[in-house]
TrEMBL record:
Designated gene of the protein: Ankfn1
Region named Disordered: 1-26
Organism annotation: Hemiprocne comata
Alphabetized Gene3D superfamilies for the sequence: Ankyrin repeat-containing domain (1.25.40.20), Immunoglobulins (2.60.40.10)
TM helices/strands, residue ranges: none
The protein's name: ANKF1 protein
Organism taxonomic ancestry: Eukaryota, Metazoa, Chordata, Craniata, Vertebrata
Length: 690
């Protein structure tokens, strides 16, 4: 069959006067034998194409050419071109795993020529080996056939070139001869690569850890040897016996971007042994047992049977909120104006009228008082009014000093943007001693409703951790929200931030800027803070540093500027789970006065955690500028592991008891380097929840 295909190729080429101009052209013609890829290479004028079918035909032609270009790049060992094609096209568009007319895939050529960089690039893109090679014998036979028929074709063309007189056809035959000579050498190189290859060595650094109460995770590296063929897949096996008899299960890993595997559905409290072996075109290599040799699925909570801290809390709060709403449905508080003091009636009535009056609009300038501004941004653009002002509404024109309690209450309200109308109905202005506080909070709710109505959007975003205050007595509460989609708004429009900053004319002096000018100057810093505060940590176990400082009306916590929603931290490892054995060891370490020596040679999970903690503690104290000798009195928080979902967990490093929270006027013995800030504790808690 292969010989007949070669003869058909000769006839096809004889009918085409131009002929192949290079060895690569001959290879592309050879692949045209595959019915799937046969296309007409007539020159297309894209402008003259009419209709969807014509355009689809052109698209398929381009995709076929990209497939041929990938084969060509692999055969020529052009790594840059291979990477460029893999980046430009998807595996489906390249037909990455569809064999060509020679029964080969790009990965086959790469591994049989022992081109490891190209093979790895193809493997990471999802490339597979040809399904034609079901055994070593079938691969050997296939390569021998390719070599033999290429050699036969070279001999035929050589005879034709020698016997024919010089003419156009002879010149064409010489080009074909060069192409087949090149292909003959390629097949011989592939055959030699296969014959000299050997099975791979065992994987290295096979590490086993406990992933949960019902799973273990194994991680490993490639074999060290570079003399064997490229590894294309791995096999993970597990058993309850160190002899692996009987075998409980196995898994094949052929996606080699991340060399790890989590074995699920295991019994808690049972020891499992794991080994990993590698595969190349010559077969499976020897298995490598894990370190430690076995792991017992468990979780630190099993040490004392502790339930998760947050279990059922969200449901309980939803239920409580539902009960409160039910109680208030027919409550007198739905008539907010009846019980208000006479002196306040006019003020609240005016505010309500202002909210629903058609003339209700954003403010251009600030007078002495409390205001709300909402910053919506998308890429480098910001939402402004038609007067090129950041949207601002008034909260209270008689409020000159924002109390921290009122501000923190506002930040909690930001978790319920959709419930503002209901909250307004529930916050009544009574004649009690707390009426001033309720008046302010009621006005805050009115301002939020006004901002939502003018913008036509409910969610105003996240509250910035501190208001802007100027010397004129203005206080500006800021909310920030990133817009992901191309939304349009009725009363506002998008403008570039830089244009807004350069075009706005300041009405204040540089020595005493207004709150709006201060906002405009610092808006990019606030946007950067907002973006960083929404970043999530990658899965893993982290070591966090807890440092507080107190003021008259608040407690603040030290956080990194680059990730202000998380404590200062370093990563211990990628596995977030602390096993029961590891937690038991930590409890034992916390209960002793003097350090207990650890057997460094023992291959246990406890010893591995001890080594990881040593590295992490040194890295963390260096990060926050604490001399290592002064950190000897620091301690690990041993009451619990802080779990943030299923993928992130924290151990806490604490200063001595007297230094955890620095009091007002007290000298802070540990001054962190730049790159940190302190947030109000309640703001930090809200950010961490998000």
């Amino acid at each position: 069959k292969m010989t007949q295909q070669m003869r058909d190729l000769q006839l096809t080429q004889a009918r085409k006067p131009p002929g192949p101009s290079s060895p690569n052209a001959a290879k592309r013609l050879y692949r045209n034998l595959s019915g799937k890829f046969r296309v007409n290479y007539t020159s297309f004028d894209e402008g003259s194409l009419v209709g969807r079918a014509e355009k689809e035909k052109l698209r398929k032609s381009y995709l076929f050419q990209s497939n041929a270009a990938l084969f060509e790049a692999v055969e020529l060992q052009d790594l840059d071109r291979v990477q460029e094609l893999l980046k430009q096209y998807s595996p489906e568009e390249l037909d990455l795993n569809t064999p060509n007319s020679e029964g080969l895939l790009p990965l086959d050529i790469a591994i049989m020529t022992n081109n490891a960089p190209i093979a790895r690039a193809l493997l990471q893109a999802g490339a597979k080996e040809s399904p034609h090679f079901v055994s070593l014998e079938s691969r050997s036979l296939h390569l021998s056939t390719l070599v033999r028929e290429a050699e036969q074709r070279v001999n035929e063309l050589t005879a034709q070139v020698v016997n024919e007189a010089p003419n156009t056809d002879c010149s064409e035959k010489e080009k074909q001869l060069k192409a087949w000579e090149w292909r003959y050498r390629l097949y011989k190189r592939m055959k030699a690569g296969f014959e000299h290859a050997r099975v791979p060595d065992a994987p290295t650094n096979v590490h086993l850890s406990v992933a949960s109460s019902s799973s273990v995770q194994v991680t490993f590296w490639e074999p060290l040897s570079v003399n064997s063929a490229v590894v294309t897949k791995y096999k993970v096996e597990w058993s309850c016996s160190p002899t692996f008899l009987p075998l409980l299960g196995e898994a094949i890993i052929d996606k080699l971007k991340n060399l790890h595997y989590t074995i699920q559905g295991l019994a808690s409290g049972t020891a499992y042994y794991v080994q990993v072996s590698a595969y190349n075109m010559k077969g499976w290599g020897p298995p490598q047992a894990s370190v430690p040799p076995f792991a017992i699925p468990s979780n630190w909570r099993e040490y004392d049977g502790r339930a998760p801290r947050r279990r059922g809390q969200a449901e309980a709060l939803d239920h409580l909120l539902g009960q409160v709403k039910t109680v208030h449905q027919h409550c007198i508080c739905h008539e907010p104006c009846k019980n208000q003091p006479q002196s306040r009636k006019h003020s609240v009535s005016k505010s309500l009228k202002h909210l629903f009056h058609p003339g209700s609009k954003f403010l251009k300038t600030l007078k002495r008082g409390l205001y709300l501004t909402a910053i919506f941004y998308k890429d480098d653009n910001i939402l402004v009014t038609h007067e090129d002002q950041i949207p601002v509404v008034e909260i209270d024109d008689t409020y000159s000093c924002l109390l921290m309690q009122d501000f923190l209450w506002f930040t909690k309200v930001s978790c319920m943007w959709d419930e503002i109308l209901w909250l307004r109905q529930c916050v009544t202005v009574s004649q009690s001693s707390c009426s001033c506080i309720l008046q302010t909070r009621f006005k805050m709710l009115l301002a939020i409703s006004q901002m939502q109505g003018l913008l036509g959007i409910q969610d105003l975003g996240q509250v910035f951790f501190e208001p802007i205050k100027d010397k004129q007595g203005n206080i500006l509460i800021i909310t920030l929200k990133e817009v992901k989609t191309n939304q349009t708004f009725e009363s506002v429009r998008w403008v570039p931030i830089c244009k807004l900053q350069t075009s706005r004319k300041s009405v204040s002096s540089p020595e005493e800027p207004t709150a709006l000018d201060m906002l405009l100057i610092s808006v990019q810093d606030k946007l950067a803070y907002h973006q960083r505060s929404s970043h999530a940590l990658s899965p893993g176990l982290y070591l966090g540093y807890l440092k507080l400082c107190s003021a008259v009306d608040q407690i603040r916590v030290l956080v990194p500027e680059q990730l202000p929603n998380i404590l200062c931290h370093v990563k211990i490892r990628s596995n977030p789970n602390i096993s029961r054995e590891e937690w038991e060891w930590l409890q034992k370490m916390a209960g002793v006065e003097e350090p207990v020596p650890v057997e460094t040679e023992a291959e246990t999970s406890q010893n591995h955690l001890f080594q990881e903690l040593q590295v992490a503690i040194k890295e963390l104290v260096t990060l926050v500028n604490i001399p290592l000798q002064e950190a000897k009195d620091f301690r690990l928080y041993s009451q619990e592991v802080l779990d943030f979902g299923d993928q992130v967990s924290f151990l806490l490093l604490l200063p001595p008891s007297d230094d955890v929270c620095t009091a007002p006027g007290q000298n802070n013995p540990y001054t962190p380097r730049s790159g940190f800030l302190t947030l109000p504790l309640q703001i930090f808690e809200l950010g961490e929840e998000e």
